[in-house]
Amino acid sequence: MATTPGSSPTDVAAHDTLPLTLSVNGIDHSLQIDPRATLLDTLREYLGLYGTKKGCDRGECGACTVLVDGRRINACLTFAVMQEGHEITTIEGLAEEDQLHPVQAAFVEQDAFQCGYCTPGQIISAVALLQEGHAGSEAEIREWMSGNICRCGAYPNIVAAIQQVAGGKRA
Amino acid sequence: MIPFSYSRASDVGAAVAEVAAEPGAAFIAGATELANWMKIGIQAPTHLVDINALPLSEIAVRQDGLRLGGLARMSDVAATPAIRQGYPVLSEALERGASAQIRNMGTMGGNLLQRTRCPYFREASYPCNKREPGAGCAALTGPHRLHAIFGASDACIAVHPSDLAVALTVLDAVVHTQSPGAERAIPIGELYRPPGDTPDRETALEHGELIVAVEIPAAPFAARSHYLKIRDRESYEFALVSVAACLELDGPDKVVRSARVALGGVAYTPWRAQAAEDALVGKPLTEASVAAARAAAVQGAQPRRDTGFKVTLAERAVVRALTTIGERP
To answer: Which residues of B90-106 are buried (b: 16+ CB within 10 A; e: fewer)?
Structure first.
């Protein structure tokens, strides 16, 4: 039910939650959720999938990048209730058993991170970029990865990792 | 964030009726703007109507022009081959906006209804007439190098952030809307309201009115077009100044048959530079005619303490954009 504009933010308990089925990494999860929960908070706080990182929470850093139906988006800028019926892929869903996804392996081989906080978002974004066909040159990779900020400045190695996968090379 | 209720709309009529009926209701689609407003506290809807399932995602390329559904995603429109080919200014403007992630989320309608990135508007501790009518404007005295050089008022000097809107301005686009029992066609040049004394009222749209489509007429200048965006960093940033331009050129002398020029990042709306267009039409595209257009483009500019550089930047951007188009085969 709608509440009045003057209602206080502490009214949460009085507010309705919604039933929601969320499909993440091929598994359906049944949740009862506050509509205010972003997809990002839902992944982390309700489903225990901590790989997707919360950086700015404003769509400015890319740490929360996930795939929805194969397309990369910022999980902090969408509400979980909006994602019912869609297939969500997080960093936890990339590896096959013990086999790293080629982009994950390339990030390890090229030392494409320092602190690692932005890395899940970088890797998911890179997976999408490769599918989109935007790995044609270093400049193109940099432009199409610009939604993922790395404050450690690992950009040259991130570009190298993406180029390694795009070129089909394995170190 | 205050609590809100949520529903999914399955047809356009029901969606607009649902939002129109409740003063605190809002449409939600890409969510990239509204979710942030709700987190920051700029907007506090009590009910969200999710319109993502509505059949408004079409990208139709026809003989007489383009029809883009209000829910067509920025990335999908930009990547449409016939749009890259026939309307490059549109693809270029879209792909210089935001990030790949946000372009996968952002819609045509939502992009046009972005609100300013003025840092005082987005930070609740500053007074802002747009956020809180009558509160005052912190940008007038605070640092304001990102702000307007055209069309501002003493109540608000903010600029509109959309790149898409600038491209649509040179393409003579029309915005189609639906509200309960009524449809409207709004020329892009009439979508944004001058700030005047009411900078909180930003567009011609009424509560419950939904952008269902954007139509762009086929035009002889559309294929020779370009979007140049100048930013503080090379990517993933809003424009300091941008230029959308189209030229219809004739013969080996490149005589300009028709022209469109608009500036972004300089006003509450894309700033159509008709005087620059007039300076070009009927003459061969030469350094002299481009120089005349350059001067005409910033006629009437009213820079403030920190925005003088935008006038020079806009002049140079106009030269570069027109030269770039002229050099294309």
So the answer is: bbbbbbbbbbbbbbbbb
User: Which residue segment(s) compose the domain that A148 sits in?
Assistant: 102-166
- CATH value at residue B10: 3.30.43.10
| B82 found inside a domain | no
β-strand A71-74 against B271-272: which pairing, if any? unpaired
| A84 and A21, same domain (yes or no) | yes
Using pLDDT thresholds of 50, 70 and 90, give the confidence band for residue A16. confident
A interface with B, Cβ–Cβ < 8 A, is 1-5, 7-9, 11-12, 14-16, 18, 34-36, 38, 57-59, 62, 65, 71-74, 76-79, 81-82, 125, 128-129, 132, 134, 142-148
String of DSSP letters for A145-170: TTTS--TT--HHHHHHHHHHHHTT--
Q: Answer whether B39 sits within 8 Å of A7, measured CB to CB.
A: no
Specify the long-range contacts of residues A10-13, CB closer than 8 Å, at least 24 apart.
A11/B2, A11/B3, A12/B3
Are residue A82 and residue A126 in the same domain, yes or no? no
Question: A83 in helix, strand or coil?
Answer: helix
In a domain, residue B3? The reply is: yes
Question: Is the pLDDT assigned to residue A5 strictly greater than 70?
Answer: no
pTM for this entry: 0.96
Give chain B's count of helices (H) and strands (E): 11, 12
- Does the beta carbon of B1 lie under 8 angstroms from any beta carbon of chain A? yes
Residues of chain B with Cβ-Cβ distance to A143 below 8 Å are: 235
ipTM over 0.90: yes
Cα B166 to the center of its chain, rounded Å: 5
Query: Structurally, how many domains does chain A consist of?
Result: 2
Q: A11, A20, A71, A84: which to substitute to probe chain B, counting the most B Cβ within 10 Å?
A: A71
With contact defined as beta carbons under 8 Å apart, do B302 and B149 qualify?
Answer: yes
